[in-house]
């Protein structure tokens, strides 16, 4: 016993020293900057391996370590077996389905730019993209009566330019020639409505004379799994056109809906989840569970898409402690037809069937 005790003690001390050498960074108190670092478009802001500070996640093929973790929202992990240095690894993607876009194959977890106007990522066979150009819409104003987009040589995104006359003819614009308009000789100022009265008037809100225009929600960007649909509206305080987005889940990708088709039937139109489920988005989960309805499948070549839906806000909670809310489509009924959308087609969509009774509510 007296001989084995020192050997056991030395082994424990060696193990403790090895563990301390592997993670010396976490032994110190957290010292994070006042503001989180700005991350490039498409790069997640995550907690470091010590659970201390938020850092820009490392992407596929980049070196990673305890304080510079990989982007788990894209299902990346740090592989320490690729390098001889045990403290540094390479970000690798989990096994998943690749993506095919225009004949180009992308690995799951790989980020790419199909054009200078989009930053995309492949996630297990599905493609998600964010625009790199600002989507600001400029309306006519007295100092800019005829705004138009122009291409600048050497730049990707178009910019707004102001013209004083329209491009299709050379007549003087009302806005541009307002300073040359004079009142008729017979016109007189209204009594009691002088400059003092004009100064007391409050500026008119653009919302008061706004003619609200809203397009229909377009189809979901994917046929299974979490996707995005959008619409354009000016239903806001500034009465300016803006693009609104909402999440959509037509059906889970791992569901076997064919088994739910009843004998003698060719379709299951609007199946409902057998039990409550939490929606997942980029590694975050919904705060509560939902028994959602989905669009089913057919055995005769038809596809089922949403026919009536509602839009509600869903609260998501992330492992880093962040909480955010997103609008999401909840299916009420689906219709089965032959006008089917094409899989993974995020830029060209063939299915433009209108959904009925779409309104917002709290779920």
Automatic annotation (TrEMBL):
<dbReference type="GO" id="GO:0005737">
    <property type="term" value="C:cytoplasm"/>
</dbReference>
<dbReference type="GO" id="GO:0007155">
    <property type="term" value="P:cell adhesion"/>
</dbReference>
<dbReference type="GO" id="GO:0005615">
    <property type="term" value="C:extracellular space"/>
</dbReference>
<comment type="similarity">
    <text>Belongs to the CCN family.</text>
</comment>
<dbReference type="GO" id="GO:0031012">
    <property type="term" value="C:extracellular matrix"/>
</dbReference>
<dbReference type="Pfam" id="PF19035">
    <property type="entry name" value="TSP1_CCN"/>
</dbReference>
<protein>
    <recommendedName>
        <fullName>CCN family member 3</fullName>
    </recommendedName>
</protein>
<dbReference type="InterPro" id="IPR001007">
    <property type="entry name" value="VWF_dom"/>
</dbReference>
<dbReference type="InterPro" id="IPR036383">
    <property type="entry name" value="TSP1_rpt_sf"/>
</dbReference>
<dbReference type="InterPro" id="IPR043973">
    <property type="entry name" value="TSP1_CCN"/>
</dbReference>
<dbReference type="Pfam" id="PF00093">
    <property type="entry name" value="VWC"/>
</dbReference>
<keyword id="KW-1015">Disulfide bond</keyword>
<dbReference type="GO" id="GO:0008201">
    <property type="term" value="F:heparin binding"/>
</dbReference>
<keyword id="KW-0732">Signal</keyword>
<keyword id="KW-0325">Glycoprotein</keyword>
<dbReference type="InterPro" id="IPR012395">
    <property type="entry name" value="IGFBP_CNN"/>
</dbReference>
<dbReference type="GO" id="GO:0051239">
    <property type="term" value="P:regulation of multicellular organismal process"/>
</dbReference>
<feature type="domain" description="IGFBP N-terminal">
    <location>
        <begin position="18"/>
        <end position="94"/>
    </location>
</feature>
<dbReference type="InterPro" id="IPR009030">
    <property type="entry name" value="Growth_fac_rcpt_cys_sf"/>
</dbReference>
<keyword id="KW-0303">Gap junction</keyword>
<dbReference type="GO" id="GO:0008083">
    <property type="term" value="F:growth factor activity"/>
</dbReference>
<keyword id="KW-0963">Cytoplasm</keyword>
<dbReference type="InterPro" id="IPR050941">
    <property type="entry name" value="CCN"/>
</dbReference>
<dbReference type="Pfam" id="PF00219">
    <property type="entry name" value="IGFBP"/>
</dbReference>
<dbReference type="Pfam" id="PF00007">
    <property type="entry name" value="Cys_knot"/>
</dbReference>
<dbReference type="GO" id="GO:0005178">
    <property type="term" value="F:integrin binding"/>
</dbReference>
<dbReference type="InterPro" id="IPR000884">
    <property type="entry name" value="TSP1_rpt"/>
</dbReference>
<keyword id="KW-0339">Growth factor</keyword>
<feature type="domain" description="VWFC">
    <location>
        <begin position="97"/>
        <end position="163"/>
    </location>
</feature>
<keyword id="KW-0964">Secreted</keyword>
<dbReference type="InterPro" id="IPR006208">
    <property type="entry name" value="Glyco_hormone_CN"/>
</dbReference>
<keyword id="KW-0965">Cell junction</keyword>
<dbReference type="InterPro" id="IPR017891">
    <property type="entry name" value="Insulin_GF-bd_Cys-rich_CS"/>
</dbReference>
<feature type="signal peptide">
    <location>
        <begin position="1"/>
        <end position="19"/>
    </location>
</feature>
<dbReference type="GO" id="GO:0005921">
    <property type="term" value="C:gap junction"/>
</dbReference>
<feature type="domain" description="CTCK">
    <location>
        <begin position="267"/>
        <end position="341"/>
    </location>
</feature>
<dbReference type="InterPro" id="IPR006207">
    <property type="entry name" value="Cys_knot_C"/>
</dbReference>
<dbReference type="InterPro" id="IPR000867">
    <property type="entry name" value="IGFBP-like"/>
</dbReference>
<dbReference type="GO" id="GO:0045597">
    <property type="term" value="P:positive regulation of cell differentiation"/>
</dbReference>
């Amino acid at each position: 016993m007296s001989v084995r005790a020192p050997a056991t003690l030395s082994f424990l001390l060696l193990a403790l020293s090895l563990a301390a050498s592997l993670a010396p960074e976490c032994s110190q108190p957290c010292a994070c900057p006042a503001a989180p670092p700005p991350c490039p478009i498409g790069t997640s802001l995550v907690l470091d391996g010590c659970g201390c500070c938020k850092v820009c996640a490392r992407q596929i093929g980049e070196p990673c370590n305890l304080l510079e973790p990989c982007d788990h929202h894209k299902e990346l992990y740090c592989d320490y077996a690729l390098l001889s240095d045990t403290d540094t690894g390479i970000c690798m993607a989990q096994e998943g389905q690749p993506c095919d876009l225009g004949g180009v194959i992308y690995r799951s977890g790989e980020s790419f730019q199909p054009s200078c106007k989009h930053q995309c990522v492949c996630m297990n066979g599905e493609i998600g993209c964010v625009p790199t150009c600002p989507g600001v819409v400029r309306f006519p104003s007295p100092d800019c009566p005829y705004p138009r987009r122009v291409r600048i040589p050497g730049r990707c995104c178009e910019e707004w330019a102001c013209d004083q006359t329209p491009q299709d003819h050379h007549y003087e614009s009302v806005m541009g020639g307002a300073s040359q308009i004079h009142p008729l000789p017979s016109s007189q100022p209204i009594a009691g409505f002088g400059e003092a009265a004009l100064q007391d008037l409050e500026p008119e809100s653009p919302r008061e004379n706004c003619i609200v225009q809203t397009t229909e929600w377009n189809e979901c960007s994917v046929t299974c799994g979490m996707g995005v649909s959008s619409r354009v509206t000016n239903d806001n305080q500034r009465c300016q056109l803006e693009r609104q987005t909402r999440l959509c889940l037509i059906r889970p990708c791992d569901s076997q809906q064919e088994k739910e088709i009843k004998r003698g039937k060719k379709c299951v139109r609007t199946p409902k989840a057998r039990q409550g489920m939490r929606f997942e988005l980029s590694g975050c989960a919904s705060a509560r569970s939902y028994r959602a309805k989905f669009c089913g499948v057919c055995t005769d070549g038809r596809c089922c898409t949403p026919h009536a839906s509602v839009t509600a806000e869903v609260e998501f909670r992330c492992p880093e402690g962040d909480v955010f809310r997103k609008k999401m489509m909840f299916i009420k009924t689906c219709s089965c037809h032959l006008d089917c959308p094409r899989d993974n087609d995020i830029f060209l969509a063939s299915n433009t069937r209108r959904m009925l009774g779409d309104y917002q509510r709290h779920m």
